[in-house]
C-alpha cells in the first residue's frame, strides 16, 4: 500500500471536509467532489500493491487487483451523477434567492427569536434598534 | 445570457463530431475483451451531444425515449437467461469468423452494452434539456420549465 | 425462485421506464406503475411463503463465484421485511394517484416512475449479499428520494433538500471509505465471506469497522446525534412522498445495521448501541411533544421509534433481534398510514398545523377512525401490532437485565402517547376553524385516497392479527442471523 496514495487520501479528505463546512453552496459541492475522489482513491488503494492493467491476455506477471477498480468505477459514476444533481439544486436555489448561500434553518431562527423575546427581549430589542 | 457563438468553435465541433462518434462506437464494440464498454461509449457520445448542443448545432431531444429503450433492452438481456434456467445476467459468447474483419468474438453482452450506452446518452440529453431551460443554453426558450408544480 | 427474486427487482424498474415513456398519457402511466409495483409486491409475498418453507435461496448473478460476483440472498429476514416494504409503496402509489390533482400532490409524471426506481432499490438493498451492491442500492433509493423531495422546486423544499442531500451524501462517502477499510482488512465485501473473516481480525480493527458502519447506517437511520436532517426535510415533501420516506428510508438503514452487525458478530458494540438507542427514543419523543404541526410531530416519532429497533439490535440476544425485526415489520406500515392520514387532514383542512384546525372527529369520522387505529398502535397499546412489537423488545430488555434502557423505552412510550393525544385534541376535537380553506378535491380522487388509506389500515390490522406467526418468523430469522454458519454455507456452497 503506497504511502503517497494514503497521503493523497488524507489531503483530499481534509480539504473536502473543510469545504463542506463553508456556507457557499459552490464550495460545498466542490467539497463533496473532493471527498468522493478521496473515497475512490481509498478504494483503489485497498486493493493491494500496484501492478499491470488487469486485462486478459495483455499482461503477464503481476496484475493489479481488478475488483476494487470495478468498485471504484461504479462509485465514480454515482458521485458524478450526484454532483450534477447538487449543481442543479444549487442552481435552483440561486434562481429563488439570488445567492448560493445555505439558508438558515427555520426552526433555529424561530427559537432564536423566541429566546430574544423571552429572556432579555427588551434590552436586546432596544440595542438592535439602536444599532440600526 | 447567450453570447454569440464563435464560428471557429462551431466548425471545430461540426468537423470533430463524426470522429468522436466513431471513437464512441469503437469503444462500444471493443468493450468485450478490451478497455471500453457501454458506459465509456455512452460518455463519449454524450460529450458529442453536449458539445453540439452548446455550439447550437442541435437541440437536446429524445432523452426519455433513449432511457426507456435502453433500460428495456438491459432488463431483457438480464432476465432472458432465466427463461432457459440459467442464472440472472448470464451471458452467451459467440465467435464468428468474418471474411475481412477476422475472428469476431461477441455475445449477449453486446446488446447489454448498447442498452447501457443508450441510457447514458439519454440521461445526458435529459440533463441538457433540464438545465438548458433555467439558464438559456439554447437560444429560444421553447421547452417547458423542468420545475413544474403540480397544481 | 430465482424468477421471483428477479421479479422483485426488475419489474418495478421496467414499470418505471414505461411510466416515464407514457408521460402525460395518464391512464397508461398509472396502469404501468401500479401493475409493476403490484407484481413486485405479489412476487415478494410468494417469496416469503417459499423461503419460510424451503429455506434460504441464493442467486449468483451471471453465475460468478461469490468471491468475485454479486449474489442475491433471499433469507428469511429479507423475505419477511420485503413484502411489507413493497406493499407500502404500492398503497402509496394508489394514494398518489388519488391525490394528484390537489396542490399537495407530487407531480405524477415523476412520482410514479421514481417510486418504481426506489422499489427496485429497496428490493436490491434487502436481497443483496454483498456490501458494495448494498451501497449501489442505497444510492438508487437515495437518488430517487432526492428528486422526489425537491422536484416541485419550492423554496422550503430546496432548502431542506439541500441539507438532506448533503447529509446523506456524506454518509454515502463514509460508506465508500468503510468499504475500502473492509476490503483492505479482509479482501472481500461479500457478507457471507465477511462472517468468516471479520471475527478473525484483531479486536481493534473489528470494532473500528463495526463502529464506522454504525455511523454510516446510523446516519441513514437517523439515530440520536445524526437525526437533525430528518424532521427538517420530511415535512416539506408532498404527503405521499413523506409517507414512503417515513415508512421506508430510515428503516432500510436499520435493516442494513441488523444484517451487518448481527452477521459479523459485533456484540461488543451492544452497550454503545443501547445508550444511543435510549437517547434516540427519549429525544425523539420529546421533540415530537414540542412541535405543533401534524407532519413534524410524526417525523419526530420516526426518530423515537428507530430507538426501539436499535434497542432490540443492541441487546444482541435472540429475543432482542427478533423484537427488532418484528418492530421493523410493524413500524413500516403504521408510520406510512399515519402520514397518509396526515395528508388527508391537510387535504381537508388546508393545513397540518394544530392551531388552525379542529373538529374533524365530528365532520370526518372516517378520517378520525383511520387515524386512531395506527396512532394507538404506534403508541403501543393492546391489541394492536405496536403492543406486540414493543412488548417483544421490552421483554427482551428485561431478559437481558438492561433496566435503564427498559425505563427509557417505557418513558418514551408514554411521551409518544402524549403527543398522539396532542394531535387528536388539536385536529379532531374542538370546533372547526372559521375559514377552512380545504382543497377542492374531486370526490373520485378523495375516494381513491380514502380507499388507499383504508387498505393500509387494514394491512396494519392484519399484522396485529398475525402477530404471533410474525413473531415466530422473526425468531427464526434472528436465529439465522445470529448463527451465520447457515447463511455462509447457503451462499458459498
What's the topology here?
The complex is a heterotrimer of chains A (132), B (151) and C (493).
Chain A: H1 3-20, H2 25-45, H3 66-97, H4 106-118, H5 121-131
Chain B: H1 7-30, H2 38-54, H3 63-83, E1 93-98, E2 102-107, H4 109-134
Antiparallel strand pairs in B: 1-2
Chain C: H1 2-22, H2 26-54, E1 57-60, E2 71-74, H3 76-99, H4 108-127, H5 131-150, H6 155-186, H7 191-197, H8 203-221, H9 229-233, H10 239-263, H11 270-290, H12 294-314, H13 318-349, H14 360-363, H15 365-379, H16 385-399, H17 403-428, H18 443-465, H19 467-482, H20 484-492
Antiparallel strand pairs in C: 1-2
Structure notes:
The complex is a heterotrimer of chains A (132), B (151) and C (493). With 132 residues, chain A is mostly helical. Chain A folds into 2 domains: 3-101, Helix Hairpins, CATH 1.10.287; 105-132, no CATH class. Chain A has helices at 3-20, 25-45, 66-97, 106-118, 121-131. In chain A, helix 1 (3-20) packs antiparallel against helix 2 and helix 4 packs across helix 5 (121-131). Residues 123-132 of chain A have low confidence and may be disordered. Chain B is mainly alpha-helical and 151 residues long. Chain B is built from 4 helices and 2 strands. Chain B has helices at residues 7-30, 38-54, 63-83, 109-134; strands at 93-98, 102-107. Chain B has a two-stranded antiparallel sheet. In chain B, a hairpin with a 3-residue loop joins strand 1 (93-98) and strand 2 (102-107). The longest helix of chain B has 26 residues, at 109-134. Chain B is flat and about 60 Å long. Chain C is an all-alpha fold and 493 residues long. Chain C has one domain (2-492). In chain C, strands 1-2 form a two-stranded antiparallel sheet. In chain C, helix 1 (2-22) runs antiparallel to helix 4 (108-127) and helix 10 (239-263) packs parallel to helix 12. Chain A binds chain C through residues 1, 20, 25, 28, 32, 35-36, 38-40, 42-43, 45-47, 67-68, 71, 74-75, 78, 81-82, 85-86, 89-90, 92-93, 96-97, 102-103, 105-107, and chain C through 68, 132, 135-136, 139, 143, 146-147, 150, 153, 155-156, 158-159, 161-163, 165-166, 169-170, 172-173, 176-177, 179-181, 183-184, 189, 232.
Amino acid at each position: 500500500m503506497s504511502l503517497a496514495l494514503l497521503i493523497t487520501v488524507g489531503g483530499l479528505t481534509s480539504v473536502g471536509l473543510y469545504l463542506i463546512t463553508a456556507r457557499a453552496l459552490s464550495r460545498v459541492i466542490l467539497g463533496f467532489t473532493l471527498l468522493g475522489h478521496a473515497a475512490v482513491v481509498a478504494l483503489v488503494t485497498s486493493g493491494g500493491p500496484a501492478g499491470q492493467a488487469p486485462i486478459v491476455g495483455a499482461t503477464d506477471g503481476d496484475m493489479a487487483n481488478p475488483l476494487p477498480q470495478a468498485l471504484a468505477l461504479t462509485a465514480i459514476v454515482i458521485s458524478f451523477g450526484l454532483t450534477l444533481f447538487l449543481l442543479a439544486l444549487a442552481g435552483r436555489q440561486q434562481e429563488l434567492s439570488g445567492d448560493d448561500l445555505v439558508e438558515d434553518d427555520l426552526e433555529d431562527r424561530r427559537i432564536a427569536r423566541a429566546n430574544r423575546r423571552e429572556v432579555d427581549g427588551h434590552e436586546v430589542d432596544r440595542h438592535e434598534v439602536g444599532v440600526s | 445570457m447567450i453570447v454569440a457563438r464563435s464560428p471557429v468553435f462551431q466548425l471545430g465541433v461540426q468537423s470533430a463530431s463524426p470522429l468522436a462518434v466513431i471513437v464512441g462506437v469503437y469503444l462500444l464494440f471493443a468493450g468485450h475483451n478490451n478497455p471500453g464498454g457501454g458506459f465509456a461509449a455512452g460518455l463519449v457520445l454524450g460529450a458529442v451531444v453536449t458539445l453540439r448542443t452548446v455550439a447550437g448545432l442541435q437541440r437536446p431531444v429524445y432523452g426519455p425515449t433513449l432511457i426507456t429503450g435502453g433500460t428495456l433492452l438491459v432488463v431483457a438481456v438480464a432476465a432472458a437467461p432465466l427463461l432457459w434456467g440459467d442464472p440472472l445476467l448470464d451471458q452467451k459468447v459467440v465467435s464468428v469468423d468474418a471474411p475481412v474483419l477476422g475472428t469476431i468474438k461477441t455475445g449477449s453482452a453486446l446488446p447489454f452494452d448498447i442498452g447501457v450506452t443508450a441510457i447514458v446518452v439519454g440521461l445526458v440529453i435529459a440533463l441538457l434539456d433540464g438545465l438548458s431551460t433555467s439558464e438559456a443554453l439554447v437560444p429560444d426558450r421553447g421547452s417547458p420549465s423542468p420545475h413544474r408544480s403540480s397544481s | 425462485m430465482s424468477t421471483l427474486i428477479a421479479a422483485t427487482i426488475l419489474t418495478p424498474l421496467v414499470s418505471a421506464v414505461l411510466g416515464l415513456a407514457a408521460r402525460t398519457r395518464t391512464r397508461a402511466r398509472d396502469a404501468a406503475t401500479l401493475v409493476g409495483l403490484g407484481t413486485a409486491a405479489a412476487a415478494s409475498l410468494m417469496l416469503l411463503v417459499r423461503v419460510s418453507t424451503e429455506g434460504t435461496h441464493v442467486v449468483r448473478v451471471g453465475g460468478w463465484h461469490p468471491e468475485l460476483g454479486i449474489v442475491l440472498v433471499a433469507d428469511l429476514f429479507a423475505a419477511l421485511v420485503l413484502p411489507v416494504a413493497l406493499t407500502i409503496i404500492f398503497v402509496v402509489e394508489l394514494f398518489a394517484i388519488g391525490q394528484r390533482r390537489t396542490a399537495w400532490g407530487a407531480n405524477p409524471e415523476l412520482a410514479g416512475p421514481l417510486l418504481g426506481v426506489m422499489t427496485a432499490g429497496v428490493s436490491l438493498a434487502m436481497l443483496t449479499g454483498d456490501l458494495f451492491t448494498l451501497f449501489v442500492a442505497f444510492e438508487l433509493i437515495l437518488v430517487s428520494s432526492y428528486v422526489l423531495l425537491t422536484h416541485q422546486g419550492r423554496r422550503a423544499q430546496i432548502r431542506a433538500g439541500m441539507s438532506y442531500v448533503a447529509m446523506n451524501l456524506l454518509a454515502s462517502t463514509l460508506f465508500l471509505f468503510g468499504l475500502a477499510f473492509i476490503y483492505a482488512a479482509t479482501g472481500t465485501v461479500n457478507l457471507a465471506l465477511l462472517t468468516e473473516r471479520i471475527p478473525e481480525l484483531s479486536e481493534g480493527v473489528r470494532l473500528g469497522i463495526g463502529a464506522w458502519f454504525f455511523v454510516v447506517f446510523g446516519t441513514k437511520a437517523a439515530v440520536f446525534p445524526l437525526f437533525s436532517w430528518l424532521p427538517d426535510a420530511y415535512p416539506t415533501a408532498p404527503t405521499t412522498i413523506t409517507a414512503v420516506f417515513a415508512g421506508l428510508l430510515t428503516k432500510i438503514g436499520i435493516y442494513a445495521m441488523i444484517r451487518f452487525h448481527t452477521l459479523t458478530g459485533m456484540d461488543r458494540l451492544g452497550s454503545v448501541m443501547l445508550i444511543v438507542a435510549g437517547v434516540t427514543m427519549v429525544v425523539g419523543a420529546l421533540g415530537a411533544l414540542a412541535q405543533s404541526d401534524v407532519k413534524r410531530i410524526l417525523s419526530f416519532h420516526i426518530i423515537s421509534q428507530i430507538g426501539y429497533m436499535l434497542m432490540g439490535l443492541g441487546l444482541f440476544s435472540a429475543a432482542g433481534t427478533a423484537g427488532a425485526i418484528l418492530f421493523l415489520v410493524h413500524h413500516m406500515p403504521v408510520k406510512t398510514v399515519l402520514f397518509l392520514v396526515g395528508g388527508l387532514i391537510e387535504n381537508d383542512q388546508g393545513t397540518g398545523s394544530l392551531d388552525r384546525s379542529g373538529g374533524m372527529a365530528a365532520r370526518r369520522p372516517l378520517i378520525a377512525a383511520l387515524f386512531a387505529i395506527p396512532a394507538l398502535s404506534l403508541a403501543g397499546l393492546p391489541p394492536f401490532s405496536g403492543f406486540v412489537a414493543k412488548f417483544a423488545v421490552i421483554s427482551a430488555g428485561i431478559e437481558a437485565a438492561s433496566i435503564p434502557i427498559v425505563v427509557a423505552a417505557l418513558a418514551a412510550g408514554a411521551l409518544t402517547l402524549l403527543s398522539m393525544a396532542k394531535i387528536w385534541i388539536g385536529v379532531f376535537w374542538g370546533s372547526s376553524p372559521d375559514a377552512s380553506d380545504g382543497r377542492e378535491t374531486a370526490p373520485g380522487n378523495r375516494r381513491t385516497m380514502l380507499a388507499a388509506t383504508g387498505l393500509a389500515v387494514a394491512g396494519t390490522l392484519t399484522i396485529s392479527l398475525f402477530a404471533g406467526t410474525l413473531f415466530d418468523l422473526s425468531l427464526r430469522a434472528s436465529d439465522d442471523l445470529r448463527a451465520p454458519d447457515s447463511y455462509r454455507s447457503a451462499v458459498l456452497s
